[in-house]
Amino acid sequence: MDSHAWDERYGGDELVWSAEPNRFLVAEVEGLAPGRALDLACGEGRNAIWLAEHGWTVVGVDFSGAGLEKARRLAAARGASLRWRLADVTEYEPPPEGFDLVIVMYLHLPPGPRRTAFGRAAAAVAPGGTLLVVGHDITNPDAGWGGPRDTTVLYGPDDVVADIEGLEIVKATRIERPVATDEGEKTAIDVLVRGTRAQESTA
Question: What is the pLDDT of residue 115?
């Protein structure tokens, strides 16, 4: 989907996604000391806002102006202060090693643009910092529930690891996520990759 399609999707008054943060973000980040954070493809801002509420200095980037407007309103309603940037993450170049935490949540692109976006996300991680990538796993269309059905925009843990050179891989796994539906609880299969950049030597 292009930015216009996402603008239409985000155009209503109601949030398309929950206002609550992604469960995997909370689990992976709660133990980190707050610093500078970058949320790439932040959508309506739920994860960026949660980070800001927990002491992070946050920049949220998305190519949907409608999504960012909802993010601004949600942040204002919750008293959260952070910066928003309208940009396509396949073109946006964050400052190298400029963030202590970079998150990419459910960004789904063809392999070429994905490698570009994930590579730049990894390059933006500061020494001692963390990159967290979460998305719908490539096995989900056959074995899980929801998410894109087009496997050309899906990926597995090994694909993400190959895209984020220069980081130490802390975790690269498939993980099940329960989803409440009108037909009862379903299970989605997500990919989760966490990487860190080594601290600079002081020797």
Answer: 97
Judge contact between 73 and 103, C-beta under 8 A: no
Cα 179 from Cα 202, distance rounded (Å): 46
The predicted pLDDT at position 2 comes to 53
Is pLDDT above 50 for 7? Answer: no
Long-range CB pairs of 82-88, under 8 A, 24+ apart, other chains included: 82/48, 82/49, 82/51, 82/52, 82/57, 82/58, 83/58, 83/59, 84/42, 84/45, 84/59, 84/60, 85/59, 85/60, 85/61, 86/61, 86/62, 87/61, 87/62, 87/63, 88/3, 88/63
Paired residues of 103 in beta bridges: 39, 132
Nearest to 42 by CA among 5, 91, 87, 11: 87
Quote the pLDDT of residue 9: 52
Task: Kindly compute the dihedral angle of the four CA atoms of residues 177, 50, 99, 132, in this order, to the nearest 10 degrees.
Answer: 0
Domain 3-9+34-185: CATH superfamily, name plus number: Vaccinia Virus protein VP39 (3.40.50.150)
Quickly state the pLDDT bin for 10 (edges 50, 70, 90). very low
Are 160 and 193 contacting, i.e. CB atoms less than 8 angstroms apart? yes
Mean pLDDT value of segment 164-176: 97
